[in-house]
Amino acid sequence: MTLHRRFKTFLQKTADGRLVKVVREHYVRDDIPCGHPSCGACSLNDGTGRAQLSDRPTLSSVLCPFPHYIVPDTNVLLAAVCYFDYMCV
């Protein structure tokens, strides 16, 4: 497993109006495959039995008429976990 270090830098305004430079360090993993069978960058045939995405996704909507995948952010899932608890949603 190799970790690639990335920096996200932005300016944030404090309560008294000063600007503060904020630098956040992120480590990106390369040992987790995307799961798409047509992807040449990921190694899916490692014998671990990981779930794979279908070659042709069947999800479509009015906003996005062509087939696509939805990849939710973990923060969104944690914030909306109560909505996923209900079977009718």
Tell me about this structure.
With 89 residues, the chain is an alpha+beta fold. Helix content is 12%, strand content 25%. The protein contains 2 helices and 2 strands. The protein has helices at 74-79, 81-85; strands at 3-13, 19-29. It has a two-stranded antiparallel sheet with strand order 1-2. Strand 1 and strand 2 form a beta hairpin. The longest helix has 6 residues, at 74-79. The protein is extended and about 50 Å long. The model has no long low-confidence stretch (mean pLDDT 77).
Quick structural overview:
By secondary structure, the protein is an alpha+beta fold. It has two helices and two strands, in the order ββαα.
SSE arrangement:
Elements (H helix, E strand, L loop, with lengths): L2 E11 L5 E11 L44 H6 L1 H5 L4
- Low-pLDDT residue intervals, each spanning 5 or more residues: none
In this structure, how is the largest beta sheet organized? 2 strands, antiparallel
Strand order of the largest sheet: 1-2
Overall morphology: extended
The helicity comes to 10-25%
Average pLDDT works out at 77
Total count of helical runs of at least 4 residues: 2
How big is the Rg? 19 Å
Task: Give the terminus-to-terminus CA distance.
Answer: 38 Å
The total beta strand count reads 2
Helix-strand category? alpha+beta
Helix and strand element order: EEHH
Percentage beta strand: 15-25%
